[in-house]
């Protein structure tokens, strides 16, 4: 697990944890999946990966200072297929996916 702490912004990369909730469906685009996951994370205060991995690599981040957080990025060259944020006051979650 990689942790990047800068002020109050944290980016976390871990294997996805499976939930019983259907956050998104396979019929959605990666962008739609990222938005659904960011919204879910914010709503339920989940500051970690939820559901299956979107694409071949997924990075998440959250902040409590109102700034858009950084996320992990893949080590090898991949195409960014989704990048979404959700906000509630100063809380911000971000989900990005690559293929």
Characterize the structure shown.
By secondary structure, the chain is α+β, with helices and mostly antiparallel strands. The protein is 14% helix and 34% strand. It is built from 1 helix and 5 strands. It has a 5-stranded antiparallel sheet with strand order 1-2-3-5-4, with helices on one face. 30% of the residues are buried. The N terminus is likely disordered.
Core attributes:
5-stranded antiparallel sheet; globular; single chain; 1 helix; alpha+beta; 99 residues
The biggest beta sheet, please?
5 strands, antiparallel
Secondary-structure content class: alpha+beta
How many domains would you count in the coordinates? 1
Low-confidence stretches: 1-6, 14-20
Shape: globular
CA distance, first residue to last residue:
20 Å
Order of strands, widest sheet = 1-2-3-5-4
What is the number of beta strands?
5
Question: What is the N-to-C succession of helices and strands?
Answer: EEHEEE
Helix content: 10-25%
Strand coverage percent = 25-35%
Number of helices: 1
Gyration radius, rounded:
12 Å
């Amino acid at each position: 697990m990689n942790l990047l702490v800068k002020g109050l912004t944290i980016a976390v990369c871990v294997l996805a944890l499976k939930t019983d909730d259907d956050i998104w469906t396979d019929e959605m685009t990666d962008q739609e999946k990222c938005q659904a996951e960011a919204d879910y994370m914010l709503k339920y205060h989940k500051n970690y990966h939820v559901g299956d991995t979107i694409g071949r690599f997924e990075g998440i981040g959250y902040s409590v200072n109102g700034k858009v957080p950084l996320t992990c990025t893949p080590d090898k060259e991949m195409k960014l297929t989704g990048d979404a944020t959700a906000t509630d006051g100063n809380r911000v979650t971000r989900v990005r996916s690559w293929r």
